[in-house]
């Protein structure tokens, strides 16, 4: 019985050039219709992509884009809601404790130790006036010489 229905559907589907009718046929029974329609040659590249997505149970590109837009809208709405809640909580705490902007946001920042600091030079070349802090590789004018004669006093 099912084999006879399959033959009838296959003949009917082969005659259908209207994509809407093919989709209605598919909607009757997805698995049965897929087995029926998969033997038909796709009419266009769009049909080939549709058959591929039906075969792998994968949503189409347009469906995924629509889902992405819906998710982005939900994310933005949730973000706005949470920001307003956080802002009202912060305003309540500021009023409760009588805080000022300078209390919440101090003006100065602590300097990072990794940036390094400037050091006053310890050594000066009397002939050129070049200086050296004593850190890093020694310049040629002081290398292998007594450093006491170059000290800045």
TrEMBL record:
<protein>
    <submittedName>
        <fullName>DNA-binding protein H-NS</fullName>
    </submittedName>
</protein>
<dbReference type="GO" id="GO:0003677">
    <property type="term" value="F:DNA binding"/>
</dbReference>
<dbReference type="GO" id="GO:0009295">
    <property type="term" value="C:nucleoid"/>
</dbReference>
<feature type="domain" description="DNA-binding protein H-NS-like C-terminal">
    <location>
        <begin position="113"/>
        <end position="152"/>
    </location>
</feature>
<keyword id="KW-0963">Cytoplasm</keyword>
<dbReference type="Pfam" id="PF00816">
    <property type="entry name" value="Histone_HNS"/>
</dbReference>
<keyword id="KW-0238">DNA-binding</keyword>
<dbReference type="InterPro" id="IPR027444">
    <property type="entry name" value="H-NS_C_dom"/>
</dbReference>
<comment type="similarity">
    <text>Belongs to the histone-like protein H-NS family.</text>
</comment>
<feature type="region of interest" description="Disordered">
    <location>
        <begin position="110"/>
        <end position="130"/>
    </location>
</feature>
């Amino acid at each position: 019985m099912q084999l006879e229905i399959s033959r009838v559907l296959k003949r009917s589907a082969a005659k259908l050039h209207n994509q809407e009718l093919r989709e209605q046929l598919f909607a009757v029974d997805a698995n049965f219709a897929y087995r029926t329609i998969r033997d038909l040659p796709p009419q266009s590249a769009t049909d080939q992509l549709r058959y591929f997505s039906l075969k792998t149970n994968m949503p189409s590109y347009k469906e995924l884009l629509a889902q992405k837009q819906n998710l982005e809208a939900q994310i933005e709405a949730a973000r706005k809601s949470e920001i307003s809640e956080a802002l009202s909580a912060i305003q309540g705490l500021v009023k409760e404790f009588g805080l000022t902007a300078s209390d919440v946001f101090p003006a100065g920042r602590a300097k990072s130790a990794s940036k390094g600091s400037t050091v006053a030079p310890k050594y000066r070349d009397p002939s050129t006036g070049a200086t050296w802090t004593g850190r890093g590789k020694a310049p040629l004018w002081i290398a292998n010489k007594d450093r006491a004669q170059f000290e800045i006093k």
